[in-house]
Amino acid sequence: MGFWSPMHLHGFQCPTPESKVDPGIFFHEALTTLSAINWVARHHAFPNARIAIMCDNQNTVDMFNSLHARTPALNPILLTAVDLMIEFQFKLRVFWIEGEQNTVADALSRFDNARALDMEPSLIISAFTPPRLTLGSEKK
Which top-level group of life is the source organism from (predicted)? Predict the structure, then answer.
């Protein structure tokens, strides 16, 4: 999993979390997008800020912009994003970009740091840990 901030020339990468059940690529794309939102919120957001995230996965873009998950397994990701939006008082929009334009993030997600640095020589690469997910209320 990988994301980066072109404005800050800072890239982040994390191995795909191990799970007994493979949640699929859509889950990991959404979790990476949430991780980018979390980083921006905690380090660069201010009240009434407008945060734009670029993503090459249309399902992820649709999920964050509609705040509607196709499967219940994705609801904790959305709940966490909404919690961040409320806590840090920002507005969020996720935009789709072509995969060919998402080359640095793609290289980071594959741990191909040499390729990422070829494209952005000043890039600082750090590890990230996805945020803990909001689980919502317990069923009674």
Answer: Eukaryota
Report the CATH number at residue 49. 3.30.420.10
139, pLDDT greater than 80: no
**Count of domains forming the chain:** 1
The pLDDT tens digits of the residues spanning 6-51 come to 999 999 999 987 766 667 889 999 999 999 999 999 999 888 999 9
Q: What is the pTM of this model?
A: 0.90
Closest CA to 73 of 5, 1, 11, 133: 133
Query: What kind and span of H or E run contains 60?
Result: helix 58-66
Q: Is residue 34 part of a domain?
A: yes
Residue 80 lies in a domain: yes
**Enclosing H/E stretch for 54:** strand 49-55
CB 27 within 8 A of CB 74: yes
Q: Which residue has the tokens 């945060």?
A: 51
